């Protein structure tokens, strides 16, 4: 963590509220991870509540024979009348028979925490018995929010990555003039290819990606590896890679928006002593292509209620786009892992001449709604629980979860972020001739 | 442990929340971990709700796990009491909190000393009842609480209304076509000259519940929610109730005749025969439809039915008795109500299936090969996979089953809606069949080949691969935009780089 910036002086104001906010349960990560890791099967060990959430949150995905299922705990499991090991063995054998996955992920939930089911203890024994690797991740709502679920899974996977027998073979082979670089964070394959190709243009080779397309293709990780995150919510994974796998972490802003992407590449280049080529021009070109969207957002104010940990990176990008960020709500703020991103946010605010926003950790939605009433922002980025009621009060909203499912990384996808951000603004432009802006009796 | 991919009914607390948030000015506080407040999303999205859903969580986190909730739950109750000033706060346990075994009743007792609102603990066991049973119980719990309260303060109004009147029990949020059904029932009672005393719980203040005994009788049109309350009111005040779901011409008539009986028992002398006759022949088109040659073509066609007990039983009866369709099997996921269901559909279908396992239903449909399915959203998807049309007749449902237009299943207008649904499902199946018989639509192929024929652009293998990964419904657009981008720049070969550049520039 080379970027230990001094955030104390005059800078961003950090607050922490009550944690009464709406977000998705972290088990939702199975929805995108099972698609990313093609030979996996995700078994969520929990109750009907977990199942109900997944089935409703995942919408139509549930109908396409997904490679995930619930191990639904019954009263006998809770009261320990049934034997956990035998029960899990029975289910995993069935999964092996029906789907033949290369790996089974066990997603621990609130219930397995409370009844202290020893998943980590059972897994190695069962793994040996049934011959399928089992990875245990505790993605529960007692400890984590939404995207942090991916963090728990990747942290568990990081420990399963192979090591090379002879690390000399690996270092500086194939004409590389830098130590191996492993990127971490789940993005769709095409986004991964785009980022790999951007780094390739700088002569930097990506040796591996956590997670890979298939579990059987997990990258080898050695002490001489450098690692760099692409998502802001991966602090446990980063910690695991540093402490358990002894890698060196490149603390960079995240490649979200053209500014973030450039800063991300520059940081990686600087660590490898590579002089970046043509990056400035590339960034400029992207900005030019965004012109039509920028006209819509400039000088508009935005309020992040906070639920997916992408908030700081998005706020930084939107500030650069000319928007005024009123508040950055965020479930959890790792000032070390997000250090470079925070620094870039601070720099961006200075460059754009706007005041530094408050970052509100563990926000209180009720108090936030009071602040929204007061500020009347042009756009509120929020969960679906609040979106319709806010729209009914004449406040534009963008559903925050879409940012986690859309392609938002790299130069190539900058348009997609603005496509999302401007959608409510464009929609309401076209509805403006209709005089109905308030759909409730209560004035906001 | 049970391997489960899909559930027909949700966990118990969802039932409690559906009842609590249907009342006016009732706030529910869930004792739950972060992320369990997913109910708010469902209500806000499915019902396109304009108001904030009156449900919050008293978050169970790692600290609570270590030290217990202590003052946290009480503070959250009293805080909501001040902020929202509700009439009633319901503390709702979840599956997580129920295994913590904290004395929630004690928190409720202490909080109610301080709060202006009444405070109740929802009496449901997560590992024994499902969403539907919990909703039934919670409604009864709230009603009996306020009846007891009124008795205590001696302001219970027992005098019957001057004109015959009814309570409708079972209007609640996130129910299948529920608002339309209730509107249709109100219309029906209006036609019959019966006043509506109270419709509960949707939109009613808990303070009005003491008026319940004024009604001459109760109706509980849904088997799943409301019956317990109707029985409680019968026991307590000797108010007769009707548990017939007025779905389908025959059942509506039976429903109205029962009303007639009840009213005549209470000293009136009325007959609704003429009304039933007129409505059946001229307002409902359903009876005539059954007689028409369209419906003749449906005779003996094979169908299967699956859903909650109320709807699956009603639709089975309509298909079999009113339309002459052959119901190969009818089923429900309401296992706890198995006996009732079996007796209801007796004689209307070859077999009865009671299961909560969608896999069993899927296999059964595949084996039966019906001409149409009437089921939930799950059966619709099974139908899609097997190429069998499906009419959705029961929860669980998607947002498209919360239509903006008037689509009741109950009453005389309901019979029209159901006839359309049944008929459309079958004709679509026919159409498909005919298309196949005559070789299908072959225009798609011709159109695409002529469009791409005038471009001489070559797609490199990598790019082609990438293109194939893009979801089908946008692939064509992206292909065209990328080719146009390449054409404009006189690029002859599309590589991955060209694809990305096209996306960066024109958003392809």
TrEMBL record, chain A:
- Signal peptide range in chain numbering: none
EC number, UniProt record: 1.3.7.7
Keyword annotations for this protein, in alphabetical order, are:
4Fe-4S, ATP-binding, Chlorophyll biosynthesis, Iron, Iron-sulfur, Metal-binding, Nucleotide-binding, Oxidoreductase, Photosynthesis, Plastid
Please provide, alphabetically and separated by semicolons, the GO molecular function terms listed in this UniProt record. Answer: 4 iron, 4 sulfur cluster binding; ATP binding; metal ion binding; oxidoreductase activity, acting on iron-sulfur proteins as donors; oxidoreductase activity, acting on the CH-CH group of donors, iron-sulfur protein as acceptor
Amino-acid positions noted as binding [4Fe-4S] cluster in the UniProt annotation, renumbered to this chain: 25, 50, 110
Q: InterPro entries under this entry?
A: LIPOR_BchN/ChlN (IPR050293), Nase/OxRdtase_comp1 (IPR000510), Protochl_reductN (IPR005970)
Top-level enzyme category? oxidoreductase
Nitrogenase/oxidoreductase component domain: which residues?
Answer: 25-423
Reported cofactor(s):
[4Fe-4S] cluster
Q: Can you state which reaction this protein catalyses?
A: chlorophyllide a + oxidized 2[4Fe-4S]-[ferredoxin] + 2 ADP + 2 phosphate = protochlorophyllide a + reduced 2[4Fe-4S]-[ferredoxin] + 2 ATP + 2 H2O
Cofactor binding remark: Binds 1 [4Fe-4S] cluster per heterodimer. The cluster is bound at the heterodimer interface by residues from both subunits.
Annotated coiled-coil positions are: none
| GO annotation (BP), single | photosynthesis, dark reaction
Q: Which family does it belong to?
A: Belongs to the BchN/ChlN family.
Q: Which HAMAP family match?
A: ChlN_BchN (MF_00352)
Please give the name of this protein: Light-independent protochlorophyllide reductase subunit N
TrEMBL record, chain B:
Q: What is this protein called?
A: Light-independent protochlorophyllide reductase subunit B
Stretches assigned to the Light-independent protochlorophyllide reductase subunit B-like C-terminal domain:
459-503
What organism is listed for this UniProt entry? Storeatula sp. CCMP1868
Bound cofactor: record note: Binds 1 [4Fe-4S] cluster per heterodimer. The cluster is bound at the heterodimer interface by residues from both subunits.
Residues noted as binding substrate in the record, renumbered to the chain:
429-430
Q: Does the keyword Cytoplasm apply?
A: no
Co-factor(s): [4Fe-4S] cluster
**Substrates-to-products reaction catalysed:** chlorophyllide a + oxidized 2[4Fe-4S]-[ferredoxin] + 2 ADP + 2 phosphate = protochlorophyllide a + reduced 2[4Fe-4S]-[ferredoxin] + 2 ATP + 2 H2O
Quote the subunit structure annotation: Protochlorophyllide reductase is composed of three subunits; ChlL, ChlN and ChlB. Forms a heterotetramer of two ChlB and two ChlN subunits.
The segment(s) forming the Nitrogenase/oxidoreductase component domain are: 12-425
Q: Which residues form the active site?
A: 294 (proton donor)
Q: In which pathway does it act?
A: Porphyrin-containing compound metabolism; chlorophyll biosynthesis (light-independent)
> PANTHER family recorded for this chain?
LIGHT-INDEPENDENT PROTOCHLOROPHYLLIDE REDUCTASE SUBUNIT B
Keywords for this entry?
4Fe-4S, ATP-binding, Chlorophyll biosynthesis, Iron, Iron-sulfur, Metal-binding, Nucleotide-binding, Oxidoreductase, Photosynthesis, Plastid
Q: Which family does it belong to?
A: Belongs to the ChlB/BchB/BchZ family.
HAMAP family according to UniProt: ChlB_BchB
Q: What class of enzyme is it?
A: oxidoreductase
Keyword check for Nucleotide-binding: yes
Q: What is the lineage of its organism?
A: Eukaryota, Cryptophyceae, Pyrenomonadales, Pyrenomonadaceae, Storeatula
* Entry-linked Pfam families: Oxidored_nitro, PCP_red
The protein's superkingdom reads Eukaryota
């Amino acid at each position: 963590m080379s970027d230990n910036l001094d955030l104390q002086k005059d800078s961003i104001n950090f607050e922490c509220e009550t944690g009464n906010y709406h977000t998705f349960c972290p088990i939702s990560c199975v929805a995108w991870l099972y698609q990313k890791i093609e030979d996996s099967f995700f078994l969520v060990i929990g109750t009907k509540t977990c199942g109900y959430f997944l089935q409703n949150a995942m919408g139509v995905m549930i109908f396409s024979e997904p490679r995930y299922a619930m191990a639904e705990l019954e009263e006998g499991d809770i009261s320990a009348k049934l034997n956990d090991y035998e029960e899990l063995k029975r289910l995993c054998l069935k999964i092996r028979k029906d789907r033949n996955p290369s790996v089974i992920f066990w997603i621990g939930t609130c219930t397995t925490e409370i009844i202290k089911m020893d998943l980590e203890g059972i897994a190695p024994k069962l793994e040996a018995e049934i011959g399928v690797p089992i990875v245990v991740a505790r993605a529960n709502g007692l400890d984590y929010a939404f995207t942090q679920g991916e963090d728990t899974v990747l942290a568990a996977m990081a420990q399963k990555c192979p090591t090379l027998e002879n690390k000399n073979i690996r270092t500086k082979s194939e004409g590389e003039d830098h130590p191996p670089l492993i990127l971490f964070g789940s993005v769709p394959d095409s986004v991964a290819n785009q980022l790999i190709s951007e780094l390739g243009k700088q002569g930097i080779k990506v040796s591996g990606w956590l997670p890979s397309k298939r579990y059987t293709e997990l990258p080898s990780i050695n002490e001489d590896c450098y690692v760099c995150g692409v998502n802001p919510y991966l602090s446990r994974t980063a910690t695991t890679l540093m402490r358990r796998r002894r890698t060196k972490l490149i603390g960079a802003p995240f490649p979200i928006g053209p500014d973030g992407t450039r800063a991300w590449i520059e940081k990686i280049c600087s660590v490898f002593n590579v002089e970046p080529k043509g990056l400035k021009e590339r960034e400029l070109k992207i900005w030019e292509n965004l012109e039509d969207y920028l006209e819509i957002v400039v000088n508009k104010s935005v309020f992040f209620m906070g639920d997916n940990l992408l908030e700081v990176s998005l706020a930084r990008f939107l500030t650069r786009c000319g928007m005024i960020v009123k508040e950055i709500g965020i479930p959890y703020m790792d000032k070390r892992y997000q250090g470079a991103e925070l620094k870039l946010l601070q720099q961006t605010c200075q460059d754009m001449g706007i005041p530094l926003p408050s970052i509100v950790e563990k926000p209180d939605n009720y108090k936030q709604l009071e602040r929204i009433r007061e500020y009347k922002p042009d756009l509120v980025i929020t969960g679906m629980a609040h979106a319709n009621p806010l729209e009914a009060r004449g406040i534009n909203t963008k559903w925050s979860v879409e940012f986690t499912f859309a392609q938002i990384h790299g130069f190539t996808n900058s348009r997609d972020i603005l496509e999302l951000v401007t959608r409510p603004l464009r929609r309401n432009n076209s509805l403006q001739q209709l005089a109905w802006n308030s759909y409730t009796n209560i004035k906001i | 442990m049970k391997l489960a991919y899909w559930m027909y009914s949700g966990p118990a607390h969802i039932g409690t929340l559906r009842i609590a948030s249907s009342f006016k000015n009732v706030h529910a506080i869930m004792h739950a971990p972060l992320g369990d407040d997913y109910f708010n999303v469902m209500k806000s999205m499915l019902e396109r709700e304009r108001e904030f859903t009156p449900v919050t969580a008293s978050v169970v986190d790692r600290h609570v796990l270590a030290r217990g909730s202590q003052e946290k739950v009480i503070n959250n109750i009293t805080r909501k009491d001040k902020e929202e000033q509700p009439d009633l706060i319901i503390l709702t346990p979840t599956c997580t909190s129920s295994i913590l075994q904290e004395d929630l009743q004690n928190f409720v007792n202490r909080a109610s000393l301080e709060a202006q609102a009444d405070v109740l603990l929802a009496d449901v066991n997560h590992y024994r009842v499902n969403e539907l049973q919990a909703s039934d119980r919670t409604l009864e719990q709230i009603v009996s609480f306020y009846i007891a309260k009124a008795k205590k303060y001696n302001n219970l109004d027992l005098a019957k209304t001057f004109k015959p009147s009814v309570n409708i029990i079972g209007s609640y949020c996130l129910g299948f076509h529920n608002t339309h059904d209730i509107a249709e029932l109100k219309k029906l009672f209006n036609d019959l000259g019966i006043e509506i005393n109270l419709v509960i719980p949707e939109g009613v203040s808990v303070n009005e519940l003491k008026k319940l005994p004024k009604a001459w009788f109760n109706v509980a049109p849904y088997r799943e929610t409301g019956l317990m309350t109707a029985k409680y009111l019968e026991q307590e005040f000797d108010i007769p109730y009707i548990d017939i779901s007025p779905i389908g011409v025959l059942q509506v008539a039976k429903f109205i005749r029962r009303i007639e009986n009840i009213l005549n028992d209470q000293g009136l002398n009325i007959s609704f025969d003429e009304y039933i006759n007129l409505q059946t022949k001229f307002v409902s088109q359903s009876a005539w439809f059954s007689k028409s040659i369209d419906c003749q073509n449906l005779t003996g066609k094979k169908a299967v039915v699956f859903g909650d007990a109320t709807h699956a039983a009603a639709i089975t009866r309509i298909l079999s008795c009113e339309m002459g369709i052959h119901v190969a099997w009818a089923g429900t996921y309401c296992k706890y109500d198995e006996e009732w269901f079996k007796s209801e559909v007796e004689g209307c279908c070859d077999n009865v299936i009671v299961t909560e396992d969608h896999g069993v239903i899927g296999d059964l449909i595949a084996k039966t090969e019906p001409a149409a399915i009437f089921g939930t959203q799950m059966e619709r998807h099974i139908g899609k996979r097997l190429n069998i049309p499906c009419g959705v007749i029961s929860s669980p449902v998607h947002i498209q089953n919360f239509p903006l237009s008037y689509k009741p299943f109950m009453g005389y207008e309901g019979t029209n809606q159901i006839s359309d649904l049944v008929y459309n499902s079958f004709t679509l199946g026919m159409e498909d069949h005919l298309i196949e018989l005559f070789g299908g639509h072959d225009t798609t192929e011709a159109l695409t080949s002529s469009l791409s024929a005038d471009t001489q652009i070559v797609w490199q293998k990598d790019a082609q691969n990438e293109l194939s990964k893009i979801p089908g419904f946008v692939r064509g657009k992206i292909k065209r935009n990328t080719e146009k981008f390449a054409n404009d720049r006189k690029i002859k070969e599309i590589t991955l780089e060209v694809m990305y550049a096209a996306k960066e520039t024109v958003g392809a």
